[in-house]
Structures are given as C-alpha cells and as structure tokens.
Amino acid sequence: MNRQQALFGRFSADLPAGKVEWIGVRPARREPMIRITEAEAVASLGLKGDRRMDGSPGSGRQVTFISAEHIDVIAQLLKYSSIDPARLRRNIVISGVNLNALRHQQFRIGDAIFLATAACHPCSRMDEVLGQGGHAAMLGHGGLCAKILRGGSIKVGDEVVCLLDGERLPEG
C-alpha cells in the first residue's frame, strides 16, 4: 500500500455505503452520453459501450464518477434548478458517500471492483455544455477517475462499498 492509500485508508472503515444513481456511456469522442441502467465493467479497460474501452489498457481514467450532491452544488452555482448528469460527461453518479474520501481506495459496485486513481477535473468543454462559468462551477466538484481491477455487472441502485485492508485486491 502506498502512502496516499494509507493516508486516505485510515478513514475507510467509517465511510457509509453509497448508491449508484445514474450510469452513462459515450460511444465516441464529442458524442452525447447515453443513459443506461446496467453496465458491464471490463477489467483494465472501461465500461462496455464507452469510448474509453478503446483507450490505453490499464489507464487510470477508465471510468469517471461524480457525486449527486456535487451536481446539486454545481446547479446552485450556475443558478439552475437541476442539471442532467449526461451534460457533465461522467460515467457514474453516486450519492450518499463523499467521493473524495474514496480517492486512492478500492471500492465495490455490484460485481466489479474499482480503484479511484485521481480527481476528475472539469474540461474546457464545461463552459460550452453548461454555459459561461460552467468550468469554474465544477472546480473541486468534478468527481473521480478510476480503473477497473475486477470486471463485472453494475447497475443503478447498487451499493458503493469501500473495501477494507483484508478485502482489497492486488493492484499489479
């Protein structure tokens, strides 16, 4: 376990389970997201049907996550009543758990196990997609990038559970 995993992992046992609220895939670059209710996570690649499946195997950005609570904050900052998650271009919306606390940790959704690798910073397209100030509104609220350590089926309504020391998979 590296230093970052150990630092974030000190508080893992105290994390409540989260819940998958929304799943989306994007078949090609600059294409709109397609909302789905179930996805197949493929180890080391991404979600079936998502353009990241064709990317670099082992990449730390195979799947992107965002917090439902942060979507509400982004909407408030932009003075919108709500924001369709598809506009934010993240694959999975999670509620009920602080995604930042999952950083550098392994977590399970359905049959799949993920490793949160880094913060998912907003891209310059957010001003185009959300309007002026979209990029700024998402700073600090962009979610997490993750890689898939063990593939499997995930679906809307599944729990998001941080894995403790004895449950973690080897990452190599």
Please explain how this structure is put together.
By secondary structure, this protein is α+β, with helices and mostly antiparallel strands. It has 4 helices and 11 strands; from the N terminus they run H-E-E-E-E-E-H-E-E-E-H-H-E-E-E. The strands form 2 sheets. It has a 7-stranded mixed beta barrel with strand order 1-6-5-9-8-7-11. It has a 3-stranded antiparallel β-sheet with strand order 4-3-10, with no helix packed on it. The model has no long low-confidence stretch (mean pLDDT 90).
> What would you report as the Rg, rounded to the nearest angstrom?
15 Å
The main pleated sheet reads as: 7 strands, mixed, barrel
N-to-C series of helices and strands:
HEEEEEHEEEHHEEE
Separation, N- and C-terminal Cα atoms? 11 Å
Based on CA inertia axes, which overall geometry fits?
globular
Could you estimate the helical fraction of the residues in percent? 10-25%
Mean pLDDT: 90
- Oligomerization: single chain
Tell me the layout of helices and strands:
Elements: H1 3-9, E1 18-25, E2 34-36, E3 38-42, E4 46-47, E5 63-67, H2 68-77, E6 92-95, E7 106-109, E8 112-119, H3 125-130, H4 134-138, E9 144-150, E10 152-155, E11 159-162
